[in-house]
Amino acid sequence: MSRLPLDLFKILGAGALAIDIIFESNHSF
């Protein structure tokens, strides 16, 4: 379990980005 697939990091990164954008949009409104 020391090695994690890069896809997992990509998915987590994309999810974090999407959540950040959604929260920013909600905060703007």
Mean pLDDT over all positions:
85
Any low-confidence stretches, pLDDT <50, length ≥5? none
- Describe the largest sheet: none
* Helix/strand order, N-terminal first: H
Taking the alpha carbons of the first and last residues, their distance comes to 42 Å
- Determine Rg (CA atoms, Å): 13 Å
Count of alpha/pi helices: 1
Beta strand count: 0
- Beta-strand residue fraction: under 5%
Apparent shape: rod-shaped
Assembly classification: single chain
Produce a short descriptive summary.
The chain is mostly helical and 29 residues long. The chain contains one helix and no strands. It starts with 5 loop residues before the first helix and ends with a helix.
Structure description:
There is one protein chain. This protein is an all-alpha fold. Helix content is 79%, strand content 0%. It is built from one helix and no strands. It is rod-shaped, with a radius of gyration of 13 Å.
How would the blueprint of this fold be written?
Elements: H1 6-28
